[in-house]
């Protein structure tokens, strides 16, 4: 057989044609004019209103954090035996949110999913902000945040070292590594974009700031060569890192002997859950950004649809994990484990268990329908459900397992206080405040990366649009013809 | 021609010799040992075939294009499932011998009594038969349809496979978990670990990938895969590398959690495998399944070097056999059994698998010539 | 000759600007063939295949990252081992001090940390020699296009003999839409990587000084703490009064009848009530040894070695202890003797605080043995003879 002769000439079925990654005529120049112009413009009124709103929420949180620092952890709802309350729930929740950013920037980069380029910058920024929110909670939970540096092993006059067999110390290493690596990854990606901003602005002050931040980037081919190599290596390392971080977070629970915490499936299941929650948050934020900043030509319906498919896939993995946990609970024939698992679906906190299962497993099944994957209403509905569901998943894991364990005489219910609620609210305030500021100060789309995948951006690519035709995976609609409005000007294939 | 014929004679001879050894071991080596060997090779064949079928389904699911030119290879390896089914049906006779949950004494054990129905021979067999049926369905839709497309050139197959792929993933999850919990964990029914399905999946996927890589290199040597070049090999190498790490991640996570919590009913699993001669096997498994392939494939150049890929793929297949040995054989006792019965089984089944795959390599065209994305796949560059 | 004339207007590079990546790629071989200087390209984003076209050597970054990653793994493993197993071995969770399993997560994180920082900072600082703010391209007119949508090819001077006119001609022929001759920078830039490294070194030195200052400050003024609210909790202090209880004491006596865990008293009633108690200890050599020792320590001084009420106390002070060999006591049941040990009798104080329950019962056995020794029967002699 000779392959050249055998290559079929048959048409590709219409339902398998991928819409292009950009809509309309997008050139490198027009891209810069569209995206890099935001930092130079005065934000609209609604931006100020939104900022005022998120800042108010943040201030509530800051007040409650002040109460916590002043009065101590007693102002929280934690009790014995529910020693871990909102502090850990929120920590795990926010670290999880961050994972989507690393998935998009690293794992999808390695898999050469080019649709990631348009949303990578925003997702990476969200990673950093989410990890900042996450870091707040252990910091407050240690009780004396000004001594938090004791968590690191450093030679000290007390001649003490940290205990390396403690999963909480692993957490310190994992989360701080994760934050610094994410920050560097983000900054490296920003350098060429900041260089573009430096060269297009005439404002003296901003030019000065951009000049320093761009550290003299000039786009030399020899620099790009090392830059691309570094980016690839970072992506590979960050892939391992993103798996490890939430695995280490899961070790906080799984290394213990608490019933329904000591589950071997916890590490991969936590990672999947983190990506799940993170993607939901990315969808929520990107929809708003896409609408209010008029980026519909760069963040297309295809982007949103693909993200919704990832959410759906993760929802199925979560479903598998829940089923395996339930099954193993039964299979273990261990009355204590069985009792705890029954508490997830009945008992005082059964409602939280059912809320978790409904929001994480049932509601996302809507995304099997193309209409739901492409409609704002449904995708936002699912994304919000997932966010709520994933928060309550952590609530269920922590509170349900702890409030009734081996010693029935010390069973007790958990009741959060207003301070707990206030800090949770405040963390959302912090996150969205940072997101709002970011959207107006730095390029929200990685223009350099998008430029590189525009049609005709690379030598040898003809008008056929090597990239726009989208030869990479996870990207095609599943059924039905693609919406015509999202086909580009060029015709593909 | 003649070396080919030579190899064929050699294979048939080895298989026949192995068959004699297998028969002899049934009568002289004891039933438990015979059936442990049999279950090992059934699970091995089944996971290899299932892993290969997963590769095919994954391509359809995510719409990967680079792998279209080599898709026929995992499709052919996946037909190993057909051979695994009769082996599995015979393996059902191992249940009363090897699986404590099926014995009458289980009723006295309070842990086993509670799930006696689940572990009983009838329900166990029904689950296995359902798994076989589901695999045949997957094979028919994904592989059968693809072979048919060679003649029809009908792109409707791509649409159908695309729609079927998510369903197959559910089937796959179910079947691989069933294999893990029934056939492997069923040997020690008091012990439980909910990650075991993922662990066996990682091993199966690696095994399927290694078999695919070897077959691709074999066909390339015969000049039957023109147009498949370094970048395709690189992707195979990268997947091998990534899943080596994934397997170790899952394996380590399971071990570390059990070691840390130190529950007597859990650590017994590792206590057996970390004392005496089993400790050597465990260390060998960790080195051959992780350390060696990791460092062999860590650089970018290594992932596209056919010579190195071939060696690593052989190593991965051996490590997969060792993995199954490590999972199954401790049921026989605290010292690893390895002597002529194991060698005979290896000769018989390896010979059979090789003969089967050699035969399968003649099935249909070497590339899915009816697939409209074939050209795109051949044009693939990193 | 050109060396002399062009000194005053020395140019260091010539840029040719192209509109498309294809045009750039086609011009590269021509520029390289001209052999006038180093050929470099400036583009808004990485162009595929430009490394080979320009003849760039492979990036050594991968090797650097691998080495540093392995180093990170070793540092983390070694550090954790030294800290946990050598310098500060504490047993937690029943694990051995050198349990490698627990070191793996941090080992992995530190490996990634070392490797990523090598990749990122090594790329910027070592390989690309950034930050560098003085490169002539940065102050060229073309830079606004280069970071936007133009593709520039440069011929850069390798020595004094650089012929900028010829270079411009090469680009013109290759189809450049614009040509720019860059003058040599007239002053050395101040924000070089050297400068940055020196600044960082200075900051590090300042940190060391500040750290030492903090160390001595906290050493000399050890009670400096930002907040003390957690120390100001209501609690009982040793040797301090408390208003919480009526009697003003912080520590309270146990409630009457409090019994220590595991020490349930057995002889609390009258002596007659205790008569029914049965000695729980077997009559073994070990029990007698215990009884003998306890008797010698606590009883012999009054009751004498033979139990006849003539002890060293009698010799010294004429004290009269009970003669245990008397018929009255030989008729006592075991429980009554035990009761006396717990509660005391007449002048004899309670020995409960000094003898554990099993020691008391052992003493009872021993007293019985003493009585039997003084009133032996025929069978006993036979036993001894045998």
Query: SSE string of chain B, helix = H, strand = E?
Result: HHHHHHHHHHHHHHHH
**Overall 3D geometry of chain B?**
globular
Oligomer designation = heterotrimer
Average the pLDDT over all residues of chain C and give the rounded result: 85
Shape of chain C: rod-shaped
Largest sheet of chain C: 4 strands, antiparallel
Helical percentage of chain C: 40-55%
**Percentage of residues in helical conformation of chain B:** over 70%
Instruction: Give the radius of gyration of chain B.
Output: 21 Å
- Give me the secondary-structure category of chain C: alpha+beta
Low-confidence stretches of chain C: 1-8
Largest interface: A-C, 74 and 76 residues
| Low-pLDDT ranges of chain B | none
How far apart the termini of chain C lie comes to: 132 Å
Structure annotation, total helices of chain B: 16
**Number of DSSP E strands of chain C:** 4
Question: For the report, how would you describe the main beta sheet of chain B?
Answer: none
Mean pLDDT of chain B: 92
Structural overview:
The complex is a heterotrimer of chains A (493), B (382) and C (386). Chain A is built from 16 helices and no strands. Chain A has 493 residues and is mainly α. The relative contact order of chain A is 0.18. Helix content of chain B is 76%, strand content 0%. The longest helix of chain B is centred in the N-terminal third of the chain and has 32 residues, at 31-62. In chain B, 51% of the residues are buried. The model of chain B has no long low-confidence stretch (mean pLDDT 92). In chain C, helix 2 packs across helix 7 (164-174) and helix 9 (285-298) packs across helix 14. Chain C is of the alpha+beta class. Chains in contact: A-B, A-C, B-C. Chains A and C meet through helix 2, helix 3, helix 6, helix 8 and helix 16 of A and helix 2, strand 2, helix 3, helix 4 and helix 5 of C.
């Amino acid at each position: 057989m000779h392959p050249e002769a055998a290559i079929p000439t048959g048409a590709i079925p219409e339902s398998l044609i991928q819409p292009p990654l950009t809509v309309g005529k997008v050139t490198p120049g027009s891209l810069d004019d569209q995206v890099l112009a935001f930092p130079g413009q005065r934000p609209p009124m609604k931006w100020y209103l939104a900022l005022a709103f998120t800042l108010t929420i943040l201030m509530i949180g800051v007040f409650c954090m002040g109460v916590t620092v002043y009065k101590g952890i007693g102002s929280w709802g934690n009790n014995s035996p529910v020693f871990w309350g909102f502090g850990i729930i929120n920590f795990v929740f926010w670290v999880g949110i961050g994972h989507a950013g690393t998935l998009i920037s690293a794992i999808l980069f390695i898999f050469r999913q080019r649709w990631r380029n348009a949303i990578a910058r925003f997702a990476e920024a969200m990673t950093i902000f989410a990890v900042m929110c996450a870091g707040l909670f252990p910091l407050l939970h240690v009780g004396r945040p000004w001594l938090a540096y004791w968590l690191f092993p450093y030679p000290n006059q007390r001649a003490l070292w940290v205990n390396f067999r403690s999963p909480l110390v692993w957490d310190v290493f994992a989360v701080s590594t994760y934050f610094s690596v994410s920050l560097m990854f983000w900054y490296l990606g920003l350098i060429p974009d900041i260089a573009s901003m430096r060269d297009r602005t005439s404002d003296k002050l901003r030019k000065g700031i951009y000049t320093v931040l761009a550290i003299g980037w000039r786009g030399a081919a020899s620099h790009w060569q090392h830059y691309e190599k570094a980016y690839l290596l970072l992506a590979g390392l960050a892939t391992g890192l993103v798996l490890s971080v939430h695995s280490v977070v899961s070790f906080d629970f799984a290394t213990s002997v608490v019933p329904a915490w000591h589950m071997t499936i916890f590490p991969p299941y936590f990672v999947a859950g983190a990506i799940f929650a993170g993607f939901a948050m990315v969808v929520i934020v990107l929809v708003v950004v896409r609408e209010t900043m008029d980026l519909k030509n760069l963040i297309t319906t295809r982007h949103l649809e693909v993200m919704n498919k990832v959410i759906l896939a993760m929802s199925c993995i979560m479903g598998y994990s829940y089923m395996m946990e339930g099954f193993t609970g039964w299979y273990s024939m261990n009355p204590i484990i069985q009792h705890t698992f029954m508490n997830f679906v009945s008992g005082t906190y059964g409602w939280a268990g059912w809320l978790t299962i409904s929001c994480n497993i049932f509601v996302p099944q809507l995304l099997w329908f193309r209409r739901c994957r492409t409609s704002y209403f449904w995708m936002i509905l699912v994304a919000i459900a997932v966010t709520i569901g994933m928060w309550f998943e952590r609530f269920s894991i922590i509170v349900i397992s702890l409030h009734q364990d081996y010693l029935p005489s010390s069973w007790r219910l958990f009741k959060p206080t207003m301070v707990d609620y206030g800090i949770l609210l405040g963390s959302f305030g912090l996150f969205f405040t940072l997101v709002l500021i970011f959207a107006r100060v730095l390029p929200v789309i990685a223009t350099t990366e998008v430029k590189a995948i525009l049609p005709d951006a690379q030598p040898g690519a003809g008008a056929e649009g090597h990239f726009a035709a989208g030869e990479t995976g996870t990207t095609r609609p599943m059924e039905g013809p693609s919406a015509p409005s999202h086909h580009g000007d060029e015709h593909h294939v | 021609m003649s070396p080919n014929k030579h190899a064929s004679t050699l294979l048939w001879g080895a298989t026949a010799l192995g068959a004699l050894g297998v028969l002899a071991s049934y009568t002289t080596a004891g039933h438990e040992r015979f059936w442990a060997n049999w279950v090992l090779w059934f699970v091995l064949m089944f996971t290899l075939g299932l892993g290969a079928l997963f590769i095919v389904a994954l391509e359809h699911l995510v719409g990967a294009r680079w792998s279209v030119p080599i898709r026929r290879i995992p499709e052919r390896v996946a037909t190993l499932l057909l051979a695994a089914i009769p082996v599995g049906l015979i393996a059902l006779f191992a249940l009363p011998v090897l699986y404590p949950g099926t014995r009458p004494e289980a009723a006295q054990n309070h842990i086993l009594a509670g799930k006696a129905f689940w572990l009983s021979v009838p329900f166990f067999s029904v689950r296995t038969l359902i798994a076989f049926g589901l695999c045949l369905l997957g094979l028919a839709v994904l592989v059968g349809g693809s072979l048919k497309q060679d003649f029809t050139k009908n792109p409707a197959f791509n649409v159908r496979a695309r729609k079927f792929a998510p369903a197959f993933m559910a089937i796959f999850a179910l079947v691989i978990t069933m294999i893990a919990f029934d056939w492997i964990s069923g040997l020690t029914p008091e012990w439980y670990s909910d990650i075991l399905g993922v662990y066996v999946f990682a091993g199966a996927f690696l095994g399927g990938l290694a078999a695919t890589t070897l077959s691709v290199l074999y066909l390339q040597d015969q000049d039957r895969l023109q147009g498949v070049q370094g970048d395709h090999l690189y992707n195979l190498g990268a997947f091998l590398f990534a899943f080596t790490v994934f397997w170790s991640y899952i394996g380590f996570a399971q071990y570390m959690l059990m070691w840390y919590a130190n529950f007597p009913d859990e650590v017994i699993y590792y206590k057996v495998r970390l004392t005496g001669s089993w400790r050597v096997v465990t260390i060998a498994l960790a080195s051959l399944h992780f350390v060696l392939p990791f460092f062999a494939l860590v650089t970018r150049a290594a992932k596209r070097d056919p010579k190195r890929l071939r060696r690593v793929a052989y190593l991965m297949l051996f490590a997969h056999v060792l993995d199954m040995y490590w999972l199954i054989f401790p049921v026989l006792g605290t010292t690893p059994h390895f002597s002529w019965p194991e060698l005979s089984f290896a000769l018989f089944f390896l010979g059979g698998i090789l003969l089967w795959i050699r035969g399968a390599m003649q099935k249909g065209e070497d590339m899915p010539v009816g697939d409209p994305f074939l050209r795109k796949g051949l044009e693939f560059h990193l | 000759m050109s060396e002399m004339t062009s000194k005053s207007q020395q140019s260091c590079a010539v840029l040719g600007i192209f509109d498309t990546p294809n045009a750039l790629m086609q011009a590269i071989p021509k520029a390289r063939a001209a052999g006038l200087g180093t050929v470099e390209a400036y583009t808004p984003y990485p162009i595929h295949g430009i490394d080979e076209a320009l003849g760039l050597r492979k990036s050594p970054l991968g090797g650097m990252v691998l080495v540093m990653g392995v180093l990170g793994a070793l540092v983390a493993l070694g550090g954790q081992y030294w800290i946990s197993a050598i310098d500060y071995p504490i047993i937690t969770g029943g694990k051995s001090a050198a349990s490698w399993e627990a070191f793996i997560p941090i080992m992995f994180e530190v490996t990634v940390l070392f490797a990523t920082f090598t990749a990122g900072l090594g790329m910027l600082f070592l390989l690309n020699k950034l930050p560098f703010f003085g490169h002539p391209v940065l102050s060229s007119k073309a830079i606004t296009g280069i970071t936007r949508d133009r593709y520039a090819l440069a011929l850069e001077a390798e020595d004094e003999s650089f012929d900028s006119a010829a270079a411009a001609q090469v680009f013109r022929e290759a189809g450049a839409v614009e040509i720019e001759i860059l003058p040599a920078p007239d002053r050395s830039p101040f924000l070089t990587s050297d400068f940055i490294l020196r600044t960082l070194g200075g900051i590090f030195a300042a940190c060391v000084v500040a750290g030492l200052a903090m160390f001595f400050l906290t050493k000399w003024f050890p009670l400096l703490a930002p907040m003390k609210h957690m120390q100001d909790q209501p609690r009982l202090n040793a040797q301090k009064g408390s208003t919480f209880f009526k009697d003003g004491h912080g520590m309270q006596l146990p409630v009457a009848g409090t019994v220590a865990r595991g020490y349930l008293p057995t002889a609390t009633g009258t002596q007659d009530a205790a008569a029914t108690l049965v000695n729980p200890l077997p009559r073994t050599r070990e029990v007698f040894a215990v009884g003998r020792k306890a008797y010698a320590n606590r009883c012999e001084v009054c009751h004498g070695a033979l139990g006849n009420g003539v002890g060293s106390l009698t010799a010294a002070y004429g004290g009269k202890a009970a003669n245990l060999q008397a018929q009255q006591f030989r008729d006592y049941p075991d429980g009554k003797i035990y009761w006396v040990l717990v509660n005391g009798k007449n002048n004899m104080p309670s020995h409960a605080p000094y003898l554990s329950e099993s020691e008391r019962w052992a003493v009872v056995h021993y007293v019985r043995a003493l009585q039997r020794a003084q009133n032996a029967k025929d069978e006993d002699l036979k036993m001894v003879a045998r």
